Amino acid sequence: MERRGQRLGIPKPGQALSDPIALRWWAGGLAAFLLSLSVYVLTLLPGVGWGDTAKLQYIAYIWGIPHRFGYPLFIFLSRLFLLLPIGSVAYRINLMCAVFGAGAVALTYLIILRLTDRDWVAALSGALAFAFCRTFWGEANHAEVYSLNALMVAAVALALVAWRQTRKLHLLYVGVGLYALGYGNHMTMVTWLPAVLFVIVATDYRVLLDPKKLIVLAGLVFVGASQYLYVIIRANQNPIHNEIRNEMGSWSWSGWWHWMTYSRFEGQFFGYSLAEQIDLLRHFLDLLQQQFYRWGYILGWIGVWERFRRKSVEPVFLGSIGAAVAFFAMNYGRGRANGLVYLIPAYLIFAVFVGCGLAAVRRRVAELLAGRPKTLARPLMLSVALVVLAMPAYPLVKNYSRVDRSHYHEPANFARAFVENAEPEFILISGMQYNEPEAIFYVATVEIPKLTLHQFWQADAVEQWFGIRPIYCWEIQQTEPRSLEERIPEEYILEPLPYLPGMARITGKQTEDGVLWAAR
Question: Is 220:177 a contact under the CB 8 Å cutoff?
Answer without folding.
Answer: yes
